Amino acid sequence: MSVQLLADLSVFVLSLLLGFEVIGRVPTTLHTPLMSAANSVHGIVLAGAVIIALTADGVLGYALVFVTAAFAAMNVVGGYVVTDRMLEMFQPRGEK
Fold it and tell me: Over the stretch 47-58, which tens digit does the pLDDT of each residue have?
């Protein structure tokens, strides 16, 4: 295992723990607006996964890139789905 891969893996694990801790402390009433506003952050994470893919040189590196890109893509799509559902709540009933 290379030093760079170990550093990337450490950043990945720490970001997972930090993200879980931050999102876990958000009140329920703010969770939906937070999800819809966080799409840009998830896009940056997806771009970071692509950059890490350029430096991956082994099976573990490729697996890390795949997991990172999959989680980021799920977050982006989920954020847009939540935003769409939230905006539907504010439309008059006849426009649906």
Answer: 888 888 888 888
